[in-house]
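Replying to the earlier thread about multi-chain prediction with a worked example.

Input:
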Amino acid sequence: MSQYCFGVDVGGTSVKLGLFDKEGTMLDKWEVKTRTTESGTHILPDAAASILAKMKEKSLSKEDILGVGVGVPGPVDGAGCVSTAVNLGWSFMNVKATMEELLGMHVEAGNDANVAALGEMWRGGGQGHKNLVAVTLGTGVGGGIIINGHILTGINGSAGEIGHVHVEDAETEVCCCGNKGCLEQFSSATGIVRLAKRTMEATQKATILSTEQLSAKSVFDAVKAGDEVAIEIAEQFGAYLGKALAVVAGVIDPEIFVIGGGVSKAGEVILTYIKKYYIPNVFVGSRNAIFALATLGNDAGIYGAARMVLE
Amino acid sequence: MSQYCFGVDVGGTSVKLGLFDKEGTMLDKWEVKTRTTESGTHILPDAAASILAKMKEKSLSKEDILGVGVGVPGPVDGAGCVSTAVNLGWSFMNVKATMEELLGMHVEAGNDANVAALGEMWRGGGQGHKNLVAVTLGTGVGGGIIINGHILTGINGSAGEIGHVHVEDAETEVCCCGNKGCLEQFSSATGIVRLAKRTMEATQKATILSTEQLSAKSVFDAVKAGDEVAIEIAEQFGAYLGKALAVVAGVIDPEIFVIGGGVSKAGEVILTYIKKYYIPNVFVGSRNAIFALATLGNDAGIYGAARMVLE
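Result:
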């Protein structure tokens, strides 16, 4: 009667956990604090203890559980090892083996952005599709690629690092990754604010935007109000992101792009500006790719982590 | 005693065929003319008849043959169907089913560029690697992507269309695909000639290059001779291609790039100019990807086609 699975999404502040049935219905979710002290050595034992406590609470035995999936913020190789996860204090961690020893159950591990993509495929904006690119527009730009229903990891665990594809030769500021001109510098929440400041400095046009209260939300609210300067910023955002996703399509030819993260809360208007630049720049074969908004929000990680053990 | 396989590479002028053992040793190769008359309806029957004749010549029975792989110049879906192959006169062709009926043997079909990538993985410049991007710099720029030893097809058969990723907003000429600013317009043999003409028109510097006899070969010969104008052209070629491959790496994170086609006959100098622009623009995780020259030349297609039936 093994019918349940757990999804664990390890973040720098909290560890999110979810209990699912194998059809993908979330039965419970909760969080524990991420203890990054002592090189993060408590993080996985804390998560494991929390899972075992939940099983006791629900009267579940190990035989009821298909497995535990874990998403972590760092590159994960095919064996479930993380080479480095700065936010957690880890230099190297065999997530799969450590959790399997702690729990005595089947464990799979993956990169958090990739796992979130799998979650959106399973129960989110990408339902019904097996070839998907998920793009998370938050503080940075995250990406996850699903091919035939499986996460594309890449040989170094760096596949889907869409936020760090080079899109602008003229950029002089350095990205967090050390390069210059990365997509993340233009199409993340912080990137949109950067674009807004530059655009407002360079224009004489009147705008309802205020340099003191700039955010991705304020920019897209102003776009919806018809503000010319905000529209100019949205065009730049769309041009960088739409053209970059056109290149992604030229490489992997997906069925669907699922756009999530804080920026996507602006809604369909985001997709309009992306598609405006995607369509004329993409290879004809991929012109009809679907663009959809993510629907799982911060739960995408626990959904996708749980889904990993069902593959 | 099924130990052999055939590889068939259908081109617009000739159909190349090869007989291989399952370890990838080529035992024989030959060609037949491509009859594009009558909507190309003779092409597959001619190829099938040629295979059956070769089996008779070699005293091979159907039981000796593991299968027949066929590469065709068009997008091929997962069922082995081509939606369109202009060079062959085909609008739709179920290559796999047609050949299986003609031969009574197992058949697989794939896009020619993807199949050539598989050939380079099996017995060419990518031997020993299972995650590979093959780039063919010929009249156009072809691409093929191998993930975990298998061709990445894409949902429309358009994965690996690296020649048509957008790299230049300022381009005014239209690419054969209908878009403007495709990689192929700058890094193919014809693209290099275009770059050379533009560079020579814009410079006052002396050069050994002659506008009457421009080719990718003459440009790279002049680079090797230290010609300043030729070096400027090579820098532009390398910048477009190196940055585009850095984006490809950000998407799929391969082990190795295998560079082939006529332009690659210039040798290692090609790789030097590509890597010069790849390294500073790629996400750090993929910085150590290997760059190698293709080694199978025009035989890559028959090698890869044969390899398809061994998967």
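Chain A touches chain B through 42 residues (CB under 8 Å).

Feel free to reuse this layout for your own posts.
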